[in-house]
Amino acid sequence: MGKVLMKGNEAIALAAVKGGCDAFFGYPITPQNEIPEFLSKYMNEHGKVFVQAESEVAAINMVYGAAGSGVRAMTSSSSPGIALKQEGISYIAAAELPCLIVNVMRGGPGLGGIQPSQADYKQITRGGGNGDYQVIAFAPENLQETVDVVKESFEIADFYRNPVMIAVDGLIGQMMEPVDLDRPIRKRNLEEKKWATTGQSTGENRRIVTSIHLDPYDLERHSMKLFAKYQKIKENEQRYELINMKDAQFIIVAYGSMSRICRSSIELLSEQGIKVGMIRPITIWPYPKKAFDEIPASVKGILCAELSTGQMIDDVLISNNGRWKVNFFGRTGGVLPEPEEIVEAIKKMMGEV
Amino acid sequence: MNQIVYKKTKGLTDTELSYCPGCTHGIIHKLIGEILEELNVIDRSIGVASVGCSVFSYYYFNCDMQQAAHGRSCAVATGIKRSRPDSIVFTYQGDGDLGSIGIAEAIHAANRGENITVILANNAIYGMTGGQMAPTTLIGQKTTTSQAGRSEALHGLPMKISEIFAQIPKAAYVERVSLHNPQHVLKAKKALKKAFTYQMEKKGFTMIEFISTCPVNWGMTPNEALKWAKESMIEYFPLGVYKDSGDEHE
Amino acid sequence: MPKGRVSFDIEKCKGCMLCVEVCPKKILVLDKVSLNKKGYNIIKVIDPDNCIGCAFCAIMCPDSVITVEKDKG
Asked: Are residues A178 and A320 in the same domain?
C-alpha cells in the first residue's frame, strides 16, 4: 500500500482491522469518535461485528462476551469512558481473556476537558479496577508506531490471554501523519482457544468463562497464576527508545506527545551546549526499568516530564532507585508546553546539582 | 411399569443445585434444561450467568457458559450472539440484576432486537445478599432495607418489568408466568419453548418473567411462599403474554 | 396394581415438601425421623399403591429428585 496520509484515529481503526479485529463495541466520546465512525461503516461492509453500545460500561461487557467466545474483540474510548470500563477490564483480566482497549486520553479528573492529557497513567498502570491484575499498556509517540502496535496488540493479547491497552493522547488521535499500514508485525506462537465458549460443547468438555473463585485458596492460586504471567511479561515485553544518551548530562523521561515536544527541547539545549538525552517508554506497563540501567555515568539528574501533575514520576523514582536526582515538569488540563519550558526546567536543575 | 414419564433432563449437569429448599430457581433451571434438550440445542447453546443466588448457574446448565458482572448479562450476551450467531444464547437474571443495575443493558439489548432469550426470576427481593428491597418489592413488603415495609412515598412503586419490555418495538416475545402449581409450571414451560423457538427463528429479543419465591428471605416455608406468590404477587404482576410479534402482520 | 411409580434420589432431596403439597392422591409425606447425608428430612412414599403416575411431584421438584414411571398398559 505504501505510505498514506491519515488521521490518527482512522489509522488506529484501520490498523485494528489489519490486526484481525472481528468485533468492535464502543460508544461516542470526544476525541476518539472517528474510530467508531470509521468502523461502523467498515465492519458492516465486511461482514464483521460493530455495535454502538448504550454506554462504555455496556461496550466493555460486550467485549468480554465476544472475547470469551473466542473472537478478536476491541473497544475504544477516552479517559472518562475508560474510567467506566474499569470493572469490565478487571473481569476480562481475571477471566484471562484477550482484547484491545484504545484510550485516546483527555484532561481530567471528572468530565475535565477534551484536550490531550496523560493523566490516566495511574488508572492504566495501577489498575482502576479491583484485584491483582494488570493491563499490558503501550504509549506510542507517532502514528506509524501507533499503527504497528495496534496491529501487534491482538497477537500479544492472544499470546498472554490478557487485555492490551493502547494509550495515545488526543493530539495523536487527531493529527495527520504518513503511515504504512502493511508493515509486517511480530507474530507469536498462538495456541488454539480451547477455553472459548464457541457453543459446541456439553458435559465435561463444556467451556466456562468466569472470574469467581470463592474459596480463598483457589483465588490465591489464581492470583498467583496471573502474577507469574505478569512477571513473565515484565521480563520480556519492556519496550523503550533511548535518544541522545552518549555523554548526556541530563536525561528526560517522557512518552507520547510530551516526548515529541521534548525532542525539540533536546535540540534547543544542544544548541546551547547542554547535552540532554531521553528515555522514551513505549510500554508504560511493563515499565521499562531496564532503560535506567543504560544511563551513562555522565548524567547528573533526571527530569520526568508529563502532561499531568505527576503520575509516571512514581515509576521513574522506583526505576531510579535513588541513583540520581529526579525533578518533575508537568503541564496539565490539556495545556501543551512550549519546548522552551522544558529547556528552562533542565536549566533550573543544572543550578541545583 | 416401564414407561418413564418424567426424569431429570440432560440439559442440566449432575451437580447438585445450591439453592435453598423449595426455591423456584430450581424449577426454572429444569425447564430451561428440558427445553434445550427438546429443541435439541444443548450442544450449541451459550448461557450467561448473572450475579445473585444464580451466580453459579454455570455449574448447572450443561452447555458453554459465561459469568457476567452484576447487571451486565445482556451486554455480554450481545457480544456472544453477535460473534456466534448460530449459537442459542440466553441470560439468567434476577429482578435486581435485570431490574436495577442491569436495566439499561437489558432495555438496549431488546431495543436493538438482539436475538437472545432473557430469563427473569422475579422474587421481589435481593436473595443472595440477605433480603434487601428490590425494584419489584411490593408495597408494604418488609425487607432489610425497607424494614417498615415498602412505601410509595419513599421508594416508588414496584417495577412492572414485562410491561416495560413489551413496549419496545423489537421485543418479539414477552410473557409473565408463574410456578405456584404444576399446571402453571407446564404453562411456563410452553412460554419458555416459544421464546427459544422465536430465537431459533431469528424473530428478535425474547423474555420470560417468572414469578418466583424466596422462602428464606420472605420468612415462609416453601409451600407458604408459593401461596403468597399466587395470592399477592400475581395481583400486582398479572400473568400473560405482553408481546407477541408473531401476532403482527408483516 | 398402581398406575404409577415414583423413585427418589434421596441424597439430593432437601425436604422442601413442594411434592407433598401437589400430590393429588396424598401419597407423599415428610419423614420426620430419617435424615439424608446433608441433614435434610427426606420425603417418603406412604401409599405407593395409589400412585397414578401424574408426575405432579416431579414437575414441582426444584432439584430433579423424582423419577416417575407409568404403566404402559
From this structure: no
Indicate whether B139 belongs to any domain.
Answer: yes
Both A221 and A282 in a single domain? no
Question: How many domains is chain B partitioned into structurally?
Answer: 1
Q: What is the DSSP string of chain B?
A: -EEEEE---TTB-SSPP-SPTT-THHHHHHHHHHHHHHTT-GGGEEEEE-SSGGGGGGGTBSSEEEE--TT-HHHHHHHHHHH-TTSEEEEEEEHHIIIIITHHHHHHHHHTT-S-EEEEEE-SSBTTTTSB--TTPPBT--BTTBTT-B-HHHH-PPP-HHHHHHTSTTEEEEEEEE-SSHHHHHHHHHHHHHHHHHHHTT--EEEEEEE---HHHHTS-HHHHHHHIIIIIHHHS--EEEEEGGGS--
Does residue B178 carry a pLDDT above 80? yes
Domain that holds residue A92: 3-189+205-236
ipTM, two decimals, is 0.96
Output the average pLDDT for chain B.
Answer: 96
Q: Which of B15, B39, B45, B46 to mutate to test the interface with A (most CBs of A within 10 A)?
A: B46
- Tell me whether residue A157 is in a domain: yes
Residue from B3, B6, B37 to probe the interface with C (highest C Cβ count within 10 Å): B6
B154: contact with C, CB 8 A cutoff: no
